Amino acid sequence: MSYERSVSAPSHELSPETVWHIQMPQIRFGRDATDELAFQLRDLGVEEGAHGLIITDETLSDIGHVGRVETHLEDAKFAVDVYDESEREPSIADIENCLAFVRDEKGEEGYDFYVGLGGGSCMDTAKTTRAVIANGGGPLDYIAEPTGEGKALDESGPPLVLMPTTAGTGAEISPVSILSVEEKEIKEGISSNHIRADAAVLDPTLTTTLPPELTAKTAMDALGHAIEGYTTHEYDSLLRPTNPRERPVYAGRTPLTEMFSEKAIDLLSGNVRKAVHNGDDLEARENMLQGALFGAIAGLTAGASLCHAMAYPVGNKYHTYHGETIAVLTPASTLGYNAASDPERFASLARRFGVDTTGMSTNEAADALKGEYIRLQRDLNVLPSGLAELAGITEDDVDWLAKQTVDTQARLLRCNPRPVTEEDVHAIFTDALYNWEP
Ligand SMILES: [Fe+2]
């Protein structure tokens, strides 16, 4: 039990946590689940004639997914507008553009419902837009101090349904929206159960168009959620908040999240090669989408840790994709540094990844996991060999990255299963410059 770790739950008695909780949107999964979107909306109370907005991006308009969803909704007697200017890794300005679109079209009231269609960036744009319209003001009002005003979201707003077209981020079920604050070169999250979607509709037929490189990158994010969730601290290592409302949204692993992590790791590690090398393999795509969902249910309830904390400063400064950043950092952070927090658990993960650990000591088996994970990445042919190849990062950049991680990512670092100092983070970044010889 650690008092330190519980500072995110400010009001508590000094007694250990005994309760865990999971909150999820409604989930509808499977081939052509898109055809049930209108049913899903009606189930959430949206009535015939209601006017909704699809928040998406240009690529998805061009390849026809947006048209498919739009036609389906119009056939079901809804009125639909489309905002297809979501940007990758959205900034405050990107969100403000979407807010301006909504306010121009529908005033402060906004639309009757929202559909976020796309990868994590489109879904985060949709989540943030709906929340800000419902609560008023701008995105910075709801980002934690000192960057923002740190106001709490009181309202969820009208129904929001998210439809992922990548198997990775978990934004469709997560209680967080990640935004980049460009002038400060940081990424910040708005974290609240009010920002969570009401439903997620996951249709693997929307994911076959994802090119190999993005398939690999998003898969590494999904695997990261599963592994970080599996290896984070246990929920009962925290203190119990006096008011259940103050229980943190990332509250540690539970028997339920562990079950989802295990299944997610099996699905993702067993299908990623097929999905990357043959994008039309619908069965592999379906397994990946399911694996990513399960990884998110686990990791984004239990909580991401060190690797995600280190990824945000990298992504913001070098504009790298979240998934490839996670890919590059996972061996040194989650599988390297953190393995010492519970070698037994990492050794069991090695076996889950297919390593034959016969005759190995626990520590050797835990180390072998890192090797196996790197082998998986190399098999995919499209991932960078380290931070150096990712964005030309050198040893000279590591000071800034380490300081920035410690200064801005306390929320995630506090929950890391092994205590971590700036010096440690420095060493891990250095280790991640080269995971293999490029
Ligand atoms: Fe992630």
TrEMBL record:
Task: Provide a Gene Ontology MF annotation, just one.
Answer: metal ion binding
What UniProt keywords apply to this chain's record, in alphabetical order? Oxidoreductase, Transit peptide
| InterPro entries assigned to the protein according to its UniProt record, in alphabetical order | ADH_Fe/GldA, ADH_Fe_C, ADH_Fe_CS, Alcohol_dehydrogenase_Fe, HOT
Indicate yes or no for the key word Oxidoreductase: yes
Q: Where is the Fe-containing alcohol dehydrogenase-like C-terminal domain?
A: 253-432
Name the enzyme's class.
oxidoreductase
Q: Which SUPFAM superfamilies match?
A: Dehydroquinate synthase-like
Q: Which family does it belong to?
A: Belongs to the iron-containing alcohol dehydrogenase family. Hydroxyacid-oxoacid transhydrogenase subfamily.
Q: What is this protein called?
A: hydroxyacid-oxoacid transhydrogenase
Origin organism is Haladaptatus paucihalophilus DX253
